[in-house]
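Notebook, bench 3.
Goal today: get a predicted structure for PQQ-binding-like beta-propeller repeat protein from Thermogemmata fonticola so we can plan the truncation constructs. The sequence was checked against the plasmid map this morning, with no discrepancies at the termini. Length recorded as 698 residues. Pasting the sequence as submitted so the record is complete.
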Amino acid sequence: MRRVTVGMAMALLAWWPVSFGNQNPGGASAEAVQVAGASDQTRKRFAELEERLRRLPDAEAVDEVLRWMEEDGEVLIQVDAHRYVPARYWGQVLLSRLSPQQLQTYRLRVDPLAEQMLARVRQQGEEHGLRRVVERYGLSRPAVQALLLSGDALLERGEAAAARALWEHLQPEGTAEWTHPDVRLSQNADLVAQAMARQGLALWLEGEVRQAREHYERLRQQYPQARGRLAGQEGVYHEVLAELLRQPPHYPRAGNVGRSWSTFGSRPTRNPTLALSYRPGETRPAWRRELSLVPRLPAEGELAGFRQPWPHPVAAEKCIFLTDGFRLYAFDAISGRPHATLELLAPPPLAREVWPPGTLACPTLTLEGDGLYLRAGLPLLRPAGARGDRGWTGRLVHVQIQRHEKNGVTLQERWRLAPPIPNAFWEGAPLVVGRKLWAAYGRFEGGRLQQGVVCYDPADAANPPALRWQAEVSISPWLPLAAGRTRLELLTWADGRIVFNTNSGVVMALDSSTGQRLWAFRYPRASRSAGQDAPAQPAPAIYDDGRVYVAPADSDGIFALDVHDGRLLWQLRGLEGVLLHAVTARHLFATVRRPLPAILAVNVKTGSPRRSEGGWFVPLRDTATESALSLTTLHHLLYPTRAGMLALHHEDGTPCFDPLSDQLPLAHYVMVDGMLIAVTPQHLLGCVSERLRFGPPP
């Protein structure tokens, strides 16, 4: 087991000049980055309207703001140094500062529209439609029900913090950016009590008992007679909450239960936290198979010293799938026996002008039902005009899995898609949720990189699916390197939103159904521009419980954003080589290379890795952050090192004793049906418990 020396700990303490909290991350390095869909002219017009509404908030000024919201509602405007939101949303923020009496004309106009939209959404049972009611008609009377119901749905799914953030709009002195006008009227005290009771319930479920008691005391003193349905019971709110507070909270968070590993990060949210316990000393490698992935780099010659690509597998129903971008492989998870190989493209020759120095990125896969989705082609991106540039665009490929008796499978290609615009290339494997497919693309033009997102529907069609929408995201400077870029960008699913961390200066959230830009965050780029092109692991955003976490490859920090409106919640700066691993209820786990290799457990509320502020960090003598990803269980962080598996307790980072940890190699690990699957550039290993080898698991 790796030990942390006192000298390393003191050095790390002396080094930590990073910033915490919600600070302005803007800088000159970000000025050249353009956010698609943003308009300076609309922003100036908004400033004029804001000043007029502040000086003379009459009906005419309100009408002019409403016209502006309808005409330019989907145009993004910059509201601070780093954040962009739609004009319609910011107009809603502006109008929420007026009194309910001043909003009468507005509400008479939008209430019928909001009522119709809410009725249609409830009839269709479309949960994400509730969010759209709030986004479009947030100050209307029907929006109250949309806020309550949407928060209830989030709470049922285990996203208590996200639910509380929605209910903050119904608190007169809440922390939300805008407050619903009804809660400022004395006759609507029951509405305030209803939202407060729900927040107290959510806090209790999260284990925040002290804050839940504060909500109980406020309810008891300010709204002693308020009653309704809470936690499945009818009664006075503070009495129901008091009964709950006598019991310990039991709230299982959403997590991967270990039956499948469907994409990079195990789930479309890219958060691979396992809802499983880890018992030290129980797991060891049971079988090993040699891989023949392209490229097989020779030990001698001009390619000597180049590092092999690290595969990112997916797994389900005791089958493991791997790809090198040219072939697709299927293995049996119990024995490691090869099932099938499907040829997709002819591999290019091994030559220095083809394979760049450093780490070669290995393509990712997406598994949904009986379909596999991947980007076929060399993971090397170059501007148009470079040698063989036509070979770098890639193809999106859908492969159908056909299962047979005795766990055998065959693979059959169904369709492939070219990039949506000329001279463009596909990024990484697409995101597939609910029969819809989203993919990121890019295009080099005039020394700049343009990036966007497309949606196809249905993803499981027998023929190439139809393009539903296409949205540009950003335009950023890109200095071409001779080797090109090998990192393939991935999208993240965030409660009905598609979040794209471009790793080129912008993070943007899009509506999954329409492609509407919901918000954008332009972060400060690192001073060394070459960092964005260095070969690296995929660096997508991670979504968990109402928050989006990003550690862009071209930045020096970690940023936590509110998924609803893109607000910066906190940032952690002064880091290099950051790789995000997973998020739990209390911590965001990451590894860094510089100034010292370390594992960080960043408190999700304070944004700090200091123990005094709810986090912790463990220095490492060496780090494999470019090579392997950790596993996170209910109580442990399992980090693979060259000396074996390092098992740390979540709460404080202390190691747990594991006599067999040295038998687990440095590798990518995935979990399927209780089996731990390890993948290195050369081998595929199955780590199976003794019980599973001789019978089904309990």
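The domain at 260-694 is CATH 2.130.10.10 (Methylamine Dehydrogenase; Chain H). The chain has two domains: 38-245, 260-694.
Flagging this for group meeting.
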